[in-house]
Write a structure and sequence with these properties.
The protein is an alpha+beta fold. It has two domains: 126 residues, Alpha-Beta Barrel (N-terminal domain of MutM-like DNA repair proteins), CATH 3.20.190.10; 124 residues, Helicase, Ruva Protein, domain 3 (Orthogonal Bundle). Helices cover 25% and strands 21% of the residues. The chain has seven helices and ten strands. About 5% of the residues have low confidence.
Length: 271
């Protein structure tokens, strides 16, 4: 599944094509995604100028004067920059065609993504209203993690992956940040000290920032809008490295299912 760095990479890739452009046509070939694409979406967006493209958690927000289009890539979705006349591949479901003659094409084999409409303020949409802070924003801190975790018995990895605590810390990057912070992912969230949460918050920011600069992690489906892969997967210290030696101490990396997600850690370096 595309995580925050992959979605941010996508945002940066499509922004030069869409920002400031008027949507000439919205071509919907398959409306049956995770939620049906609203039938009146073309009426709401055609002829409207895209003022900017933002990201909130894993949602892309195409903001126009009347509201915003919310795009979620789901498990296997991607956006590519194409000419409207380019041959269609299977699972090319939607085209945003601009007056410049270019298009951004939504591709989703599993159809678990979504394209939704929110009139007015995008943050009022029910899918966004209850989300926690952005991990790269000013409202995210180790102090916040510490205060929110008091009395919590849930594993710290599951805790930092909760979108109500902080958005966008998906499975790959949670494992990597906890490794850098030296925190075992199974440790109860309420038993992590303030000092260790401050270190973890810093490591979350660094891991996500590095992944964005590398274009994300290509694990199965993700490619950038220009069809180039992301390269952060080559730098992963623990994720998907079960049985391989830890870069720090040489002990074999362990794999354990936590909260129904595969988790990877070093039993010696992480406590």
């Amino acid at each position: 599944m595309p995580e925050l760095p992959e979605v941010e990479t996508t945002r940066r890739g499509i922004e030069p094509v869409l920002k400031g452009q008027i949507i000439k046509r919205l071509v919907i070939r398959q409306p049956a995604l995770r939620w049906p694409i609203p039938g009146d979406l073309p009426h709401n967006v055609e002829g409207q100028r895209i003022e900017r493209i933002d990201r909130r958690a894993k949602y892309l927000l195409l903001r126009i004067p009347a509201g915003a289009v919310l795009v979620h890539l789901g498990m296997s979705g991607s956006l590519r920059i194409v000419a409207p006349s380019d041959p269609l591949r299977p699972h090319d479901h939607v085209d945003f065609v601009t007056e410049s003659g270019q298009a951004v094409r939504y591709h989703d084999p599993r159809r678990f993504g979504s394209i939704l409409w929110q009139p007015g303020h995008a943050d009022d949409h029910p899918l966004l209203a209850s989300l926690g802070p952005e991990p790269l924003g000013d409202q995210f801190s180790g102090e916040r993690l510490y205060q929110r975790s008091r009395g919590r018995r849930v594993a710290v990895k599951s805790f930092i992956m909760s979108a109500q605590v902080v958005v966008g810390v998906g499975n790959i990057y949670a494992s990597e940040a906890l490794y850098r912070a030296g925190i075992r992912p199974t440790r109860a969230a309420g038993r992590v000290s303030l000092a260790r949460y401050e270190q973890l918050a810093q490591d979350i920011r660094e891991v996500l920032s590095e992944a964005i600069e590398q274009g994300g992690s290509t694990l199965r489906d993700f490619v950038q809008p220009d069809a180039m892969p992301g390269y952060f997967a080559q730098q992963l210290a623990v994720y998907d490295r079960a049985g391989k030696p830890c870069h720090g101490c040489g002990e074999a990396i362990k794999r354990q299912v936590i909260g129904q997600r595969a988790s990877y850690f070093c039993g010696r370096c992480q406590r």
